[in-house]
């Protein structure tokens, strides 16, 4: 029997939660169901003088329920999310988070469908605010970016052609056919024996050979968008250190980079992306450290920084003595995850976020938003 080496990017998709239920197993056919219910409760406050504070309670958008199917070398996964666009990219259809099939050969694994792109952060950050994406805009990149794609995986390498916006082809009534080229995404990662990443380098590039089909974000033909990042997460004993850094240009167009700020709410605001405009460059770094305090409790601390510069909306008027704008984002947090049982985790977290204009003589001078949040996540996996 030939041994197939599966990419760690794909293996992350195939790993089931510890409490997954096997509902069928007959020779080479296997079916499992799994789910994760994630909620939060707490308190948040804006740093603006006189701003109201408020209580936070809700279900995380990325709460999920799914089924995995395997027959010999064929695998498939369908997963429903609490709040998710459908496979057609609209909110009117069923919110499938995962909707893909794969086939493994001696040369690697080929996958088609909706799943996470190879370039997401799948294990280097732990800030669970903003749907486990609390680090984006504060030193991190997207922790989830589920798009329709063709993906090839072998020996830690993952390559994909990604459709960022689902469009219509040429037909009798279609006056604006989809001529937007797909995005190229690639990553190489190394996982530990539990399937968790210890090293990853990823990069993606998109050239808009035609104007974007997403009319809400006008992008002229000839625009390039890209970013790259690297992460390293060594472990020693019951502790870990996670370090990651990223750089890109126009990464907000496909939403894997962003410039965000916090009002003290559970979600972060990405409204600055449109204001800063095309050609905005983003560079950031993030560091986290975690250690076990006991068999059931751990502590995680982290901090991050990101600078956004060069955007068309950041250019200063030289006639008025203005400088170009630089937006800086900072964050820090402490988290105390407590494993109540094998499938139930309670994790209190306190976070601080600040996004501010760095140049006092720029057109955006005076912009500053600060948020402080103290909340706990209640997470039940099955």
From TrEMBL:
InterPro entries: Gram-neg_bact_OMP, Porin_dom_sf. Coiled coil: none annotated. One of its GO terms (molecular function) is porin activity. Keywords: Cell outer membrane, Ion transport, Membrane, Porin, Signal, Transmembrane, Transmembrane beta strand, Transport. Residues 1-20 form the signal peptide. GO terms for biological process: monoatomic ion transport. One of its GO terms (cellular component) is pore complex. This is Porin. It comes from Helicobacter cinaedi.
């Amino acid at each position: 029997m030939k041994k197939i080496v599966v990419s760690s990017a794909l293996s992350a998709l195939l790993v089931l939660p510890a409490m997954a239920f096997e509902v069928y197993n007959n020779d080479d056919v296997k079916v499992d169901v799994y789910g994760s219910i994630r909620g939060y409760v707490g308190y948040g406050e804006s740093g603006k003088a006189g701003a109201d504070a408020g209580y936070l309670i809700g279900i995380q958008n990325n709460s999920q329920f799914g089924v995995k199917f395997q027959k010999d070398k064929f695998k498939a996964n369908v997963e429903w999310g609490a709040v998710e666009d459908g496979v057609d990219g609209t909110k009117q259809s069923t919110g499938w988070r995962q909707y893909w099939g794969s086939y493994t050969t001696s040369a690697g694994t080929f996958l088609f469908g909706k799943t996470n792109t190879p370039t997401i952060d799948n294990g280097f950050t732990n800030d669970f605010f903003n749907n486990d994406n609390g680090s984006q805009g504060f030193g991190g990149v997207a922790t989830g970016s589920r798009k329709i794609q063709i993906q090839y995986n072998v020996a830690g390498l993952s390559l994909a052609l990604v459709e960022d916006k689902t469009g219509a082809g040429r037909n009798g009534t279609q006056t604006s056919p989809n001529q937007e080229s797909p995005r190229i995404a690639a990553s190489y990662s190394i996982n530990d024996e539990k399937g968790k990443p210890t090293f990853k380098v990823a990069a993606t590039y998109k050239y808009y050979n035609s104007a974007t089909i997403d009319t809400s974000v006008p992008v002229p033909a000839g625009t390039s968008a890209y970013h790259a990042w690297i992460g390293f997460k060594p472990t020693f004993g019951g502790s870990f250190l996670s370090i990651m850094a990223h750089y890109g240009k126009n990464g907000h167009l496909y939403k894997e980079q962003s410039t965000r700020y916090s009002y003290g709410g559970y979600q972060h605001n990405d409204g600055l992306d449109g204001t800063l405009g095309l050609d905005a460059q983003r560079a950031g770094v993030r560091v986290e450290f975690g250690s076990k305090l006991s068999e059931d409790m751990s502590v995680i601390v982290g901090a991050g920084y990101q600078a956004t510069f060069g955007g068309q909306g950041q250019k200063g008027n030289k006639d008025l003595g203005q400088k170009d704008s630089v937006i800086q984002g900072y964050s820090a947090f402490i988290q105390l995850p407590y494993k109540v049982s094998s499938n139930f985790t309670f994790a209190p977290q306190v976070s601080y976020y600040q996004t501010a204009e760095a140049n006092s003589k720029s057109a955006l001078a005076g912009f500053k938003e600060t948020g402080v949040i103290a909340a706990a996540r209640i997470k039940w996996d099955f």
